[in-house]
């Protein structure tokens, strides 16, 4: 009300400065002792992580201070990899445009030796359609599942740049339109030929695996499993509303056993097959669990425990859209895994 008295203009009120995103070195968040102990107790072959890392809302969960999304994208990976539970990350940008060996090497140089990358293959070879800027299919893609660009534009650059830090190279096949679903046998033939022609990963990255994720449940057949097994590849559990719940996808893993476990937990089922943007708007800034899914976590924890118990590697990446905050989902999943492996209390 001082602004309206008769004694002349009042001085401007003192304002508390809003914190600006830091331009300084990004440091890892300070973790509680029990969280550090949890990380140390997890199996060495278990690599939990998130889908990308450039989220300012993870302040206090993953890094200290306020940082812009662009700053985190450029230089935040080192702080991310300093978190005791975050032992891998999904490189999703490679889906939209192939990355070069030098780009991969720049990422590898930011993380410790135990860290692993889950890398998405480019849509160049994973989408049956060539799409316009709005995402609408324009025509059939002549490079769909073509082994030449799959090797030259994806697998070989990843081997050259990431080397032993490769965890899983994931061919996430975009949803097939009806015309292609009617030719599923042809798609499987193409897939088999492509997988057989890829460069071997093990000489460079002994724990690495090629995985195939699908968005059409029609793929989940013994024929699909046989193709993966023959190529030494595995099935990527795709936790997405387009696919059946995790329990109904487990027969694929049984058909491939023993094999590494690869899982990408992408989107909470409540949002439906096309609800990615809705989930983003509801969950930002991704700093708390808003739609907990303990049933999925419990199932994943059982599969993780069985796989690591057989001395096989596990690569699990979680999206913010799964429960609201990927780092907190990882924390709860790690706790569930630890509880399975913890000894029974004495009576």
From TrEMBL:
Pro residues bias spans: 10-20
Organism for this UniProt entry: Caenimonas terrae
Name of this protein: DUF72 domain-containing protein
Entry superkingdom: Bacteria
InterPro entries per UniProt: DUF72, UPF0759_sf
Gene3D superfamilies, A to Z: Protein of unknown function UPF0759
Region Disordered: start-end pairs: 1-23
């Amino acid at each position: 009300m001082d602004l309206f008295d008769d004694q002349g203009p009042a001085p401007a009120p003192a304002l508390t400065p809003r914190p600006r995103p830091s331009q300084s070195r990004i440091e890892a968040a300070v973790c509680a002792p029990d969280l550090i102990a949890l990380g140390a107790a997890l199996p060495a072959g278990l690599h939990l992580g998130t889908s990308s890392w450039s989220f300012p809302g993870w302040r206090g969960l993953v890094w200290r201070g306020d940082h812009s999304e662009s700053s985190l994208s450029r230089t935040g990976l080192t702080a991310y990899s300093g978190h005791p539970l975050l032992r891998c990350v999904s490189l999703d940008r490679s889906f939209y445009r192939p990355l070069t060996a030098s780009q991969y090497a720049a990422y590898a140089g930011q993380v410790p030796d135990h860290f692993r990358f889950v890398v998405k293959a480019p849509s160049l070879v994973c989408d049956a359609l060539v799409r316009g800027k709005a995402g609408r299919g324009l025509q059939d893609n002549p490079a769909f599942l073509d082994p030449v660009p799959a090797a030259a534009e994806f697998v070989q650059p990843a081997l050259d740049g990431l080397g032993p830090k490769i965890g899983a190279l994931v061919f996430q096949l975009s949803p097939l339109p009806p015309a292609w679903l009617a030719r599923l046998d042809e798609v499987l033939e193409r897939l088999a030929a492509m997988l057989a022609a890829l460069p071997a990963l093990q000489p460079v990255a002994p724990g690495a695996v090629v995985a195939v994720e699908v968005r059409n449940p029609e793929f989940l057949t013994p024929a699909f499993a046989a193709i993966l097994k023959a190529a030494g590849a595995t099935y990527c559990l795709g936790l997405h509303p387009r696919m059946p719940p995790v329990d109904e996808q487990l027969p694929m893993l049984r058909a491939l056993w023993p094999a590494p476990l690869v899982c990408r937990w992408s989107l909470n089922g409540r949002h439906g097959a096309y609800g990615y943007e809705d989930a983003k708007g509801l969950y930002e800034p991704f700093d708390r669990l808003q739609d907990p899914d303990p049933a999925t976590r419990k199932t994943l924890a059982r599969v993780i425990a069985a796989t690591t118990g057989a001395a096989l590697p596990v690569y699990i990446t979680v999206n913010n859209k799964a429960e609201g905050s990927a780092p907190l989902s990882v924390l709860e999943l790690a706790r569930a895994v630890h509880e399975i492996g913890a000894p029974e209390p004495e009576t």
